[in-house]
Design a protein that fits this description.
The chain has 240 residues and is an alpha/beta fold. The protein has six helices and ten strands. A six-stranded mixed sheet has the order 4-1-5-9-6-10, sandwiched between helices. Strands 2-3 form a two-stranded antiparallel sheet.
């Protein structure tokens, strides 16, 4: 049994109210609900939020919101994983059975599709991983064009990786990928103790194109997503 959790808290210091901001005429969270509804491999999904306004919009869009997330699981200081675990436990209590995999969908990556969800789940199953996350090819690489401040040497910088000293061309650097926040598939038994996804030993990825990997963190990101959708509609951008 694969269950989806769309996690959408009300607070956002950097971009207030972003989960209800309009994108192509729909609240941001609705795009994730539509993707979950078109997934073939998700058996069920629900929305976890502490915000009654988000809950109402989600229900109107056809999503289940059977509870409000406790306030202590919706602060800036806490990781997302306790909230996902809480949602999984609540679903299991209501369903009377245990989930096999839990799929986290974040509204801030609204261009992901139902096909992306299914492909990430398929990758998770075929590799027998404990976690599979969606990624996109990174524009910047710690092996080629990223530098960091030198500790205790004000104003000076150094390569992020010593490997940079051996590569004069970007094409020579090892491939790297950036997490885009669109899909996380987690084995239920691992979720119970998950604190840091990078500590999970059986970790794999599903690659998405950059055009569907926009992560909404500020108004400029929302404008970019709007531009991509409008150009895709006019067939000026290849969205799939």
């Amino acid at each position: 049994m694969n269950i989806g959790v769309i996690a959408a808290r009300g607070g956002s210091k950097g971009f207030p109210g972003k989960n209800l901001r309009l994108l192509a005429g729909k609240p941001l969270i609705v795009h994730s609900i539509l993707a979950a509804q078109t997934s073939r491999f998700l058996n069920e999904f629900l929305v976890s939020t502490d915000d009654p306004a988000i809950a109402e919009v989600a229900r109107t869009a056809g999503a289940r919101v059977p509870f409000l997330r406790p306030a202590e699981l919706a602060t800036d200081e806490i990781s997302i994983w306790p909230a996902v675990l809480h949602a999984a436990e609540q679903w299991e209590r209501m369903a009377g059975r245990r989930a096999d995999a839990v799929v986290l969908l974040q509204p801030t990556t609204p261009l992901r599709t139902g096909e992306d969800i299914d492909a990430c789940l398929a990758r998770f199953l075929e590799t027998d991983a404990d976690i599979c996350v969606s990624v996109t090819a990174a524009h910047d690489s710690p092996y080629f064009n990223m530098v960091e401040p030198v500790p205790d040497a004000e104003g000076l910088f150094r390569p992020c990786s010593p490997v940079m000293l051996d590569h004069a061309r970007r094409q020579e650097a090892p491939p790297v990928y950036a997490l885009n926040g669109a899909v996380y598939v987690i084995r239920r038994s691992v979720l119970a103790t998950l604190e840091n996804q990078f500590r999970v030993p059986r970790f794999t990825v599903y690659e998405m194109p950059r055009v569907r990997s926009v992560d909404i963190d500020e108004p400029e990101d929302l404008a970019l997503a709007e531009w991509i959708l409008s150009r895709a509609q006019d067939k000026q951008v290849t969205f799939r």
